[in-house]
């Protein structure tokens, strides 16, 4: 069965803005899905509904056959451990080390008690270092996050998500603030995580050319509805 199933998803914010007006799709394990759409189309809201950062107004989000919109708070915590998030603005803790940022991912969403005390096992630290090495960040392990370039910070974001050992990675405009060359490197890392680790990826982008290069499937969102859902080669070149 599908890893993720979105059924008739609708979201109207409290100020009356409708961001999603009936979205349906399923995602199977191992897919690399790129969601494209212009600014304000509803892509970010969609990812936030999947991760329960936003409560949908209507519809269902089934993750591993569990309806997350009806999940208990302990089920939501479990869901968030299984879903890694990557953000446009990286969302690192700027004043702490790269290693510490990655270990925070190991805690899933940071456990305020053990996180504050810095209680990590030697195995956790070894695993975090291994992930950082894979992302080419072995020289940056003990640097403060805010000493790094944008591309390096996003690689830390990927490392943090990986350290959760997630089933699904959701990336919200992960390359929007990076130059083209750095963007390629970030997309290549995401692609290899999907292919080699079998982690399903859903990536929000607004660049159609990048989407076509990396996606196994493209979902186009327009004004809160699905306007396209298919293989990259099925997408018209015409605008
Ligand atoms: P995208 O990620 O495609 O740019 P968003 O999901 O961020 O789209 O936004 C979809 C619509 O919902 C936009 O009109 C946006 O202004 C609005 N929106 C997003 N977040 C909020 C919020 N917290 N409160 C009210 N409106 C919001
Ligand atoms: P980004 O481009 O990084 O997604 P946005 O400027 O779209 O950032 O949104 C930043 C924050 O403001 C988000 O938490 C979003 O939900 C919220 N937001 C976006 N649009 C609106 C809106 N029209 N009204 C209220 N909050 C909004």
From TrEMBL:
Molecular function (Gene Ontology), one example: ATP binding
Record's keyword annotation contains NAD: no
SUPFAM superfamilies xref list: P-loop containing nucleoside triphosphate hydrolases
Record key words, sorted: ATP-binding, Cell membrane, Membrane, Nucleotide-binding, Phosphonate transport, Translocase, Transport
SMART domains, per database record: AAA (SM00382)
Recorded superkingdom: Bacteria
Domain ABC transporter: 4-239
One annotated Gene Ontology cellular component of this protein: membrane
CDD domains in UniProt: ABC_PhnC_transporter
Annotated NCBIfam families: ABC_phnC (TIGR02315)
Protein name: Phosphonate transport system ATP-binding protein
């Amino acid at each position: 069965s599908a890893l993720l199933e979105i059924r008739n998803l609708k979201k109207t914010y409290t100020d009356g803005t409708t961001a999603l007006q009936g979205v349906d799709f399923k995602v199977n394990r191992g897919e690399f899905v790129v969601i494209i759409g212009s600014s304000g189309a509803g892509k970010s809201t969609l990812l936030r509904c999947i991760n329960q950062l936003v409560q949908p107004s209507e519809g269902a989000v089934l993750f591993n056959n569990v309806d997350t919109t009806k999940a208990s708070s302990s089920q939501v915590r479990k869901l968030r451990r299984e879903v890694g998030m990557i953000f446009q603005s990286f969302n690192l803790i700027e004043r702490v080390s790269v290693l510490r940022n990655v270990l925070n991912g190991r805690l899933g969403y940071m456990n305020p008690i053990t996180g504050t005390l810095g209680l990590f096992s030697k195995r956790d630290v070894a695993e975090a270092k291994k992930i950082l090495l894979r992302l080419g960040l072995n020289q940056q392990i003990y640097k403060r996050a805010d000493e790094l370039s944008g591309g390096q910070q996003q690689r830390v974001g990927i490392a943090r998500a990986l350290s959760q050992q997630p089933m699904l990675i959701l990336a919200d405009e992960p390359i929007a603030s990076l130059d083209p060359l750095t963007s390629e490197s970030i997309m290549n890392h995401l692609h290899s995580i999907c292919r080699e680790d079998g982690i399903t990826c859903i990536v929000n982008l607004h660049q159609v050319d990048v989407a076509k290069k990396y996606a196994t499937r493209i979902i186009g969102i327009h004004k809160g509805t699905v306007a396209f859902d298919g293989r990259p080669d099925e997408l018209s070149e015409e605008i």
